Amino acid sequence: MSTQRRRDVPEVREIAVALYREQREHLLGYACGHAGSMAVAEEALQEAFISFLRAYDPGRGAPALAWMKLALKRECWRRKDRERWKRRAGQERWRDEDVPGFVLDDLLSPAGGVEERVAERDEARRRLAPLKPDERAGLGLLAAGFSYKEIAARRGWSYTKVNRCIREGRVALGG
Question: With 0-12 CB in 10 A as exposed, 13-18 as middle and 19+ as buried, what is 91?
């Protein structure tokens, strides 16, 4: 059954109306547990009902409430992830000593006068400031020549965390 036809199935609308009347409070509480705030939970619940009307197929045997809870949980997670990326943590200013084994001067070219080096240093600080502290540490140690395994051992991180910090840091830097 196509998505267009499924939207027109009265049975799906009736099931959605029944779910809304009978389970709204339960679903909203469930959403709050995954969303973290009432406003996000309410928006996610509305979006989950829209998804339900578009995609739920009663002929496939999935219980409507279970289908709705899964759609709702995924929508909450999607919204939380979107918000997390919007307000990137670690926007605060940092110092060279925040990253062990890494000196900002390593990023600067050795040639040039004092004014050029100061300008380069300011530009490097401006570009690195939006990074989270762990992203700065991972990228700094990588720039200093350490392998992922050495970074993990030095920082007490898993290989996965090293990979994630470096990948997300590169994305944040635009590279």
Answer: exposed
Q: Report how far Cα 60 is from the mean position of its chain's Cα atoms.
A: 32
Tokens of 105: 């001067």
Nearest to 151 by CA among 137, 132, 164: 137
Structure tokens at 43: 């928006």
Q: What angle do CA 51, 57, 59 make, to 5 degrees?
A: 170
Q: Quick check: 122 and 159 in contact, CB under 8 A?
A: no
The contacts of residue 52 (CB under 8 Å, 6+ apart) are: 12, 16, 19, 64, 67, 68, 71
Q: What is the pLDDT of residues 86-144, one digit of tens each?
A: 665 444 444 544 444 444 455 555 555 667 777 777 787 788 888 888 998 898 888 88
Q: The pTM is what? A: 0.46
